[in-house]
Amino acid sequence: MEIKQTAIAGTLESSDVQIMLSQSHDGVTFDLVSDVAKQFDDAIKATITQVLAAYDVHNVLVKVVDKGALDMVIRARAITAVQRALDLADEPNWEVL
Amino acid sequence: MTEVIRDIYLTNAQQKKEWAAFLADLGLANFSEQELGGIEAIIGLYDDDRLVGTGAIAGQIIKYVAVCDRGAETKGARFNRVITALENRLATLGRFHHFVFTKPRYIASFEHIGFRLLAESDLGAILEKGSPDVTQYLADLPKPTSEMQRVAAVVINANPFTNGHRYLVTQAARENERVYVFVVTQDASLFHTSERLDLVKAGLADLPNVVVVGGGDYMVSYLTFPAYFMPADASVIDYQTTLDARLFKNLIAPACHITTRYVGDEPQSRTTAIYNATLARELAPEIKLVVVPRLQTADHTGVISARTVRQAIAAGKRHDWVDLVPATTDQWLQDHLASLQERIRKGQEIHGN
Questions:
Q1: Which of A17, A18, A59, A60 to mutate to test the interface with B (most CBs of B within 10 A)?
Q2: What does this protein do (chain B) (predicted)?
């Protein structure tokens, strides 16, 4: 599916993550800022990529500001951001959830 | 102990007093009407009833960010909360790209939460966050071919496009293989951004090596740089023009292989004269600055200025503008005279630069 509008989810507070999704034409591109990037940037990207794939999103610019969020938090924020970006916020995708 | 975000309204005298006192405590004391004028929303972070953090939104600029860490659970937590609240507010307004102007010592704090530094000087810095950002702006610019050695740039507001602008660009086009004409994006002018851009394109359509592009958010008119956090004795115009020049030199010019920038000389405006001097200082040695003498009017009574054209529009005297603008601009002015005069009647300022 194509990103319909830029969308953001999450916060900049400790143990959270802020994810912004916007339109792109060349695959999934990450722009990641994290206090723990060295150890965990691959894990963070993998979690978000998984969510994007579940929604069939293959072209998107993903901007992430991570504040040490746990995997399930990243997943939840990613789902919210995708639903907003696809304009599906009122119709959750239960299979992904 | 919970800290909550609440709106602050400057129309409420008590709130305004408390807010101003809080900022003054932290070294922010410029509350000129000009700085406060564009503010759309102010939020406050409260620990019970004590104000411990604040920030404001003006268009796509985050302003007046100040946080007191006294009594905070962790350092930086309040700052991150204030910025989160401001960004969520911007998102609900459909804005996903914003800027902050701040003191150099706070650059790192903003970079930690995803801002990217665009330019800095001893006095201040400009950072951006969100999408589309400068990377995307630069990627979308048409690039010169690898054979082109001499690439120049001209930055104009063109409010509206005159023979003077055309003269400047023609000079550059004669001496270079490609010329980028960046039209400043700023809807504070009598002519809207899209109108100015269209008139520039129409007036230069016959020059094959000229590329006209919108300046995006990066050819910011330096006059719009906020200066509320500057000490009163600092040269605001110097800080503004230095940032503008560095942004051009470090980001825009390399992307398009620009080696020369052309400006008109400025016998009339002190501000523009300072701007040109700053450009010359900052762009050297990598980028050459060429100052082209301004085109005189046909009767040699003075230089061609867009301000004169605007005054002729206000007076409805085509006779006074027809010799100052290309035929394309003249035609457009005739077709839109009534609506332009309506804008002036509604209070659009026409006497500025």
A1: A18
A2: Acetylation of prosthetic group (2-(5''-phosphoribosyl)-3'-dephosphocoenzyme-A) of the gamma subunit of citrate lyase.
